[in-house]
User: Which sequence fits this backbone?
């Protein structure tokens, strides 16, 4: 099977204070309608445990708002890293050939249904994520903010040391 190049943009408006990435195949055992946020994602140590596992990977954006999310393959160039100086590194275990990106608040009423425009197709496997951004020109977090998410396929889950919720702002 020929590997597809990852190059996909998502426009997403959120009410919550963060974004969550997951693979639908990795969360198929979650209960429809359950308040997963309250049950298993509201405390920093819970978020950290999921991040280390790579199943439901969230990060704080500092505010709700409108985000332009650019998924790309590999690692960012030095030029991109300079353009977007705020970054975090995470890992994601993909099962079922898709990655979904949702508003953190969606975890309060879990649904297996995620809009197609908020999903990208990728090969199954473990991905090292480099997530980058910069404060918007307006100075307001979430104001048509660009976030770049670079995905680099790996043989095993990267060793992550997060002890709380990763923050993609300063």
Assistant:
């Amino acid at each position: 099977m020929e590997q597809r190049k990852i190059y996909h943009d998502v426009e997403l408006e959120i009410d919550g204070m963060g974004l969550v990435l997951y693979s639908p195949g990795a969360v198929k055992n979650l209960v429809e309608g359950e308040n997963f946020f309250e049950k298993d994602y509201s405390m920093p140590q819970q978020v950290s445990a999921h991040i280390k596992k790579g199943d439901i990977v969230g990060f704080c954006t500092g505010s709700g708002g409108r985000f332009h999310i650019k998924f790309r393959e590999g690692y960012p160039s030095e030029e991109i890293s300079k353009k977007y100086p705020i970054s975090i590194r995470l890992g994601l275990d993909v099962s079922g050939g898709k990655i979904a990106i949702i508003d953190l608040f969606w975890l309060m009423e879990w649904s297996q249904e995620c809009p197609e425009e908020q999903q990208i197709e990728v090969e199954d496997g473990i991905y090292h994520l480099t997530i980058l951004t910069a404060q918007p020109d307006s100075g307001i977090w979430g104001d048509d903010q660009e976030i770049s998410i670079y995905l680099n396929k790996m043989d095993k889950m990267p060793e992550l040391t997060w002890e709380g919720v990763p923050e993609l702002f300063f």
In short: The beta strands are 7-14, 18-22, 56-60, 65-73, 86-94, 98-103, 119-121, 125-133, 145-154. Residues 67 and 145 are 5 Å apart (CA to CA).
